Amino acid sequence: MPTPDPEGRHIVIRWGNPHLGWNHFIYRHNIRVCKIRTAAIHGKVDHNDHQGRLEYDGVAVKTGPGAQEVHFKVIVQYARKTKDKKYDAGKGQTIGVVNAFCRNQADNKCLAWMNK
Question: Is the pTM higher than 0.85?
Answer without folding.
Answer: yes
